[in-house]
Amino acid sequence: MPTKTQESLTALATGNALRGEIQAAGLKVTTTRLAVLTALARNPHADADTIFRAVERHLPSTSVQAVYGVLGAFTEAGIIRRIEPAGSSALYERRIGDNHHHLICSNCRRVSDVDCVTGEAPCLTPSNQHGFSIQTAEVTFWGVCPQCQTTQCQKADQPSPH
C-alpha cells in the first residue's frame, strides 16, 4: 500500500506531466485546464457533463461554459480527441497518438478502445476517395458489453411477471 509521501510524489509527477502537455500545445496552464485533463485521465471517454462534475468537485466556482471552452481548446490543440457516437453526446478522450476505433455498448454506453483493424492510419481506405486526401477513419462497433450480456442472461432466466 502506497504511503502518503508516495501518493504525493505520484500526484506531483502527474501534475507536472499534465502541465507539460498543456505547455507543449502552446496553451497557458490554468487550474481549470489542469482539472479538465485530470478528469479525463480518470474518466476516459467522458462527456462534457461528466468532466464538468469531476472538475466542479475540486473547483466549485467552475462553470460548464469554462469546461466546454477548455475542451474546445484542447481538441483544437490536439491534446484530446472528440468522438461523436450516433445518438450520444460527444465524448472526449486522451488517446490521440494513433488511429484507433471504438466499441460501444448499446445498453449502458460503455466505450472501449480497439486498435485499427489493419495497418497504419487511416487503416481503412474507401473505394472512391472523391479527390479527398484521407487523414483518418473512424469506425464505431456497436454491441452488448460482457456485463450487460450477463444482466440480460439473468433477466431472461427470471420468470415473466405476467
Report on the structure:
The protein is 43% helix and 13% strand. It has 162 residues and is of the alpha+beta class. It has two domains: 1-97, Winged helix-like DNA-binding domain superfamily/Winged helix DNA-binding domain (Arc Repressor Mutant, subunit A), CATH 1.10.10; 99-162, 2-Layer Sandwich (Dna Ligase, domain 1), CATH 3.30.1490. The chain has a three-stranded antiparallel beta sheet with strand order 1-3-2. A three-stranded mixed beta sheet has the order 5-4-6, with no helix packed on it. Strand 2 and strand 3 (91-93) form a beta hairpin. It starts with a helix and ends in a 5-residue tail after the last helix.
CATH fold title of the largest domain: Arc Repressor Mutant, subunit A
Count up the domains: 2
Rounded to an integer, what's the Rg over CA atoms?
19 Å
- List low-pLDDT spans: 5-10
Helix fraction by DSSP (H/I, runs of at least 4): 40-55%
Give the strand order of the largest sheet, numbering strands 1, 2, ... along the chain: 1-3-2
Sequence of secondary-structure elements: HHEHHEEEEEH
Q: What class would the helix/strand composition place it in?
A: alpha+beta
CATH superfamily of the largest domain: Winged helix-like DNA-binding domain superfamily/Winged helix DNA-binding domain
What distance lies between the first and last C-alpha atoms, to the nearest angstrom? 51 Å
